[in-house]
Design goal:
Elements lengths: L7 H18 L3 H17 L1 H17 L4 H7 L3 H16 L7 E8 L2 E9 L2 E6 L3 H13 L3 E5 L5 H16 L8 E4 L2 H7 L8 E5 L2 H9 L13 E5 L5 H13 L8 E7 L3 H14 L3 E4 L1 H5 L4 E2 L13 E7 L2 H11 L4 E5 L3 H10 L4 E4 L18 E3 L7 E3 L5 E8 L5 H5 L8 E2 L3
Parallel strand pairs: 3-4, 3-6, 4-5, 7-8, 7-12, 8-11, 9-10, 9-11, 12-13
Antiparallel strand pairs: 1-2, 1-17, 2-16, 14-15
Length: about 425
Amino acid sequence: MNVPEPSTELVQRAISVRRAATYLGQSTDIQRKEALGAIADALSLCRKEIVSANQQDLKRSIENGLSESLLSRLKLNENKLDAAIEGVRKVACLPDPIGIRQLHRQLDEGLYLERLTVPLGVIGVIFEARPDALIQIASLALRSGNAAILKGGSEAKLTNEAIVKAIDHGLGNSSINSDAICLLTTRRESLSLLRLDGMVDLIIPRGSNDLVRFIQDNTRIPVLGHADGICHLYIDSAADLDKALRIAIDSKCQYPAACNAIETLLLHKDIAPSFLDKAIPFFNESGVKLLGDQVCNSLGIENKAEESDWSTEYLDLVLSVKVVSSIDQALDHISRHGSRHTDSIVTNDPKTANKFLHSVDSSGVFLNCSTRFADGFRYGFGAEVGISTQTLPPRGPVGLEGLVTYRYFLKGDGHVVSEFASGAKSFSHKDLGL
């Protein structure tokens, strides 16, 4: 697929967003807090219009045969909208991420070096079927002093337009320029966004593996995100089986369309028979289709797992189950098939727990708890713009701290390098208080 050059209109819009980002980066903490408060109020006032638009999107998407997992993500009822609005207010209450001094050093008498956090500038976010993600992203972008160009999936077109209309209204009641949030509505615009290097500082894709891979392959703009969410839960021989079952049910069934829901359940051979005897009825009652290896099939799981299932992100009520002989075999399976998103172990053995926590190279490694906790809101970030599985920071749920960079400031009084090069002066390199 060819990526078209941006139209003159899109370039002009990007220039306006860039200009808004410059002023936004110079705004005060109070101004950005007040802007988010105004946005939350506007979203509340427009609740009926937003929910109505979402119902129209849902009706059209059902008629078009959208999958159940995407329909689940698309749905924005009043409860879900209220939670998103509350998230905006919580983001407003978070500490200001801008202007934090990370380094303060005297290089010489009267020559001082500082490293301070600053906004990235303009972030571009392309997401599928998640209108509540638009609210999260906009609030985090503004709170961290960044402007944002957003492109949601066509299935959520009316909902996204209603949300951005409310955001614009809220910004109109604040001192922040409404150009700081820009919504793209066509496929051509979203593709052309990838060509806006020099105007957009970071692209964040939120969607399918194919979407993320396409974006990574077709832009020179840095890309932050993850392609797959193949999460594992390993139940060790030293696990409390009642606790393990509770965690497994939650990790799969609480919201199966989420990227932090488990897709594979690994069972130690010593507890597999007794665990499956308890678990199969619960999973059946919850509507989960279980796919098992040969051992699991002999223990009551009817459907056979194929080799491809170990590397499949279902985003649905489907779960692959495998029996392993040791912690090492579990670690090897996760290393070969995992996506470095989130993996969890259930065990009461401290030695085994420690080995798992320090051997699994994922952005989230959990002990005795559900993988569904891998979320910016639950981590106390207020919200998240996405989850990054890359090893370079930011990693895991990306909140405010992931949307700032830093700049070095050097302040002197007529200092020149030649004095130090000649040996007339030497650097003191004295660290001062932050």
